[in-house]
């Protein structure tokens, strides 16, 4: 997880002077994790405040169909689903606010959280739900084919690649896990590994090497990506 804009690692975070708001429960992030936490906290009378961050609704607002979330038999678009989650959290009294958490001081209690470098909130509890960001390779074509041949999530999109040949880039546990998952759906999985060896745990490597339709290309650096057939 990257705390991109939060100086969590600094020993002496800069806490501005001024009015301080006190809250029982502060939730940082408004993706599925943030709103789920808010629903539970609000129902426990903790009057949660959600600071939404630069991507209100989180990563799912960047996708079209979400088919694997229980409760939507016809599927749902990511933005609609996140609007529903927000409404549900607000129904129980969650206070959702625009803003970016720019510093925190967890060495004091109540914890201090700075929003947009100026507003200080003192919170009895803080839930960090700042999500994660997929590591892309940086090819211009990657963005072009995102959602129509390029994906950063096998369990989300693997279904669309049934019976096809796919490539997974990476040599760690995540890549090994995704390759093994896709091998159950796809005709062939090429695992492209930059180093001469896999970094994945021994157990994950064993699964990769025992799976007949996974072929490992080590010492191989991808230079571009193209979608041959869609
Ligand atoms: C294109 C795409 C398609 C996907 N499709 C699917 C799918 O079909 N099915 C599926 O199960 N999963 C899918 N995923 C994965 C899914 O989106 C993530 O697993 C999920 O969003 C993670 O939820 P989260 O709440 O942990 O974090 P995120 O959704 O990443 O939300 C993080 C939140 O934290 C906020 N934040 C970050 N830093 C700060 C800060 N300093 N201050 C305040 N707020 C901050 C952001 O603004 C954001 O609101 C997809 C992902 C992508 C990118």
Describe the protein.
It contains 6 helices and 11 strands. The chain has 230 residues and is α/β, with parallel strands linked by helices. It has 2 domains: 109 residues, FAD/NAD(P)-binding domain; 78 residues, 3-Layer(bba) Sandwich (FAD/NAD(P)-binding domain). The strands form 3 sheets. Strands 5-2-1-8-7-6 form a 6-stranded mixed β-sheet. The two termini are 32 Å apart. The relative contact order is 0.14. Flavin-adenine dinucleotide binds next to helix 1. The site of flavin-adenine dinucleotide has 30 residues, from helix 1.
List keywords for this structure.
230 residues; FAD/NAD(P)-binding domain; binds flavin-adenine dinucleotide; alpha/beta; 2 domains; 6 helices; 24% helix
Number of helices: 6
CATH superfamily of the largest domain: FAD/NAD(P)-binding domain
Q: Give the ligands present.
A: flavin-adenine dinucleotide
* Overall body shape: elongated
Question: What separation lies between the terminal Cα atoms?
Answer: 32 Å
The strands making up the biggest β-sheet line up spatially as: 5-2-1-8-7-6
Topology (elements, then pairings):
Blueprint: E1 20-28, H1 32-43, E2 49-51, E3 65-66, E4 76-77, H2 78-91, E5 95-97, E6 101-105, E7 111-115, E8 119-128, H3 140-145, H4 154-157, E9 165-169, H5 173-183, E10 188-192, H6 202-210, E11 214-217
Parallel strand pairs: 1-2, 1-8, 2-5, 9-10, 10-11
Antiparallel strand pairs: 3-4, 6-7, 7-8
Helix pairs in contact: 1-2, 5-6
The structure holds flavin-adenine dinucleotide.
Flavin-adenine dinucleotide is lined by residues 5-6, 28-34, 51-56, 58-60, 62-63, 66, 68, 100-101, 129-131, 134, 153, 156.
